[in-house]
Amino acid sequence: MNHMVYLFLLDFDMPTILFAEYLSHDLPYKLSSDDVFITSGCTQVIDGALVMLARPGANILLPWPGFPIYELCAAFRSLEVRHYDLLPEKGFEADLNAIEALADQNTVALVIINPGNPCGNSYSYQHLKKIAETAEKLKFLVIADGVYGYLAFGRNPFVPMGSFGHCSSSYPWFSFKEAAVPGILEQTDEVFFKRTINIQKQTSDICCDRIKEIPLYLLPAQMKLNLLLLEDISDDIDFSFKLAREESVIILPGVAANKAQFEDDLNKEGGRADSGTLSDLLWDDTIAGPGTLRIPVPYEE
Q1: In what residue span(s) does the Aminotransferase class I/classII large domain sit (predicted)?
Q2: Would you state the pLDDT for residue 14?
């Protein structure tokens, strides 16, 4: 019995040709079917990219915060991971100065996630151009994770990293896209995709408007902790549990986005100090100043 019978029912050339045509719409050049590699989900494509780059002593630059699967796949392929920060005061742009400081002759790639996960930001054309120029200067690949590219809405429209492929013919771009059957690309009207994004935007607007109606001491949508006031808190998970229990404020621990940075930041701030309740740890608007991170605290009459 031929156990490969289903293999002969599949036409692998057709989907890659269709994907190439679809992705070429937003690029200054035309892709061919040879430029498209179809995988089973994001984890497989991440691992596939890293296994091609792995070699003894190699390192890869990953964003913090970011997507934890990159660390997992890098560790499995014996790639050293070096994290560069995303700058919240600049809309979570990549810290280009940190990238240049971290990179060396063994750096094989820089990963960017745009639109951002978990930060939800979308990079401007100008910032992406600077990233491309930095990669060209330092001679490494850019792995552009654009899974949410065509679901973005807001001030910054999605710009595919492939738009800057002209910066270096020797250092190509990887771009990750959610897979779709060929029929979706061929038979679905563009109006459907636009309507889907509009529905998502309307839903987001409704959610934000309703949140504004909740009686809170409203602060800008970012947060920062006064680490000098932390007492009897071991890590970010411990802090999250105690904040939820004492103040009914639920946050996502940083470890869920790749990196437990709590202890490093605490040491930089000079250690612990006596404090009261967790609400005392939240920056007041007059203390934090512009451009710092804040979180809302319960409104009191």
Answers
A1: 30-159
A2: 63
